[in-house]
Amino acid sequence: MSLPIDGSCEAEYADGYIHSETEHDDVSPYTGEHNILNDILEKRPEAEHGPLVRFSTFYKDQRYDVDWNDLPDNARPVRWKRMEADQVGGEITEVRLTKVGFGYQWNDETGANHQEVVEL
Length: 120
What we know:
Radius of gyration: 16 Å
Number of domains: 1
Helix content: under 10%
Number of strands: 7
Strand order of the largest sheet: 2-1-3-4
């Protein structure tokens, strides 16, 4: 197994299957055109592997987890990345990950959206 890339995410399903951005080079094995986060959001692995039980991201040698078992049925994963780039004469010379947002969101019975997201 490859070391997870900073900011990457993965999902674990009921049968133990792990759907990983790092392992799949962030290309969906289900569609070949979407990324892994889109697979997780669209629940593509669930038909084969059962419900999502853990959603994780990696940042600065740490894994951050959300236990999906006790969340509302309509909970959705959240993961965003903030990047910075250096540019010299119109050419990008370096790109850096500076922050990761990670957590989940859901809608209550009135339709209001709620989020539990931390910035790492």
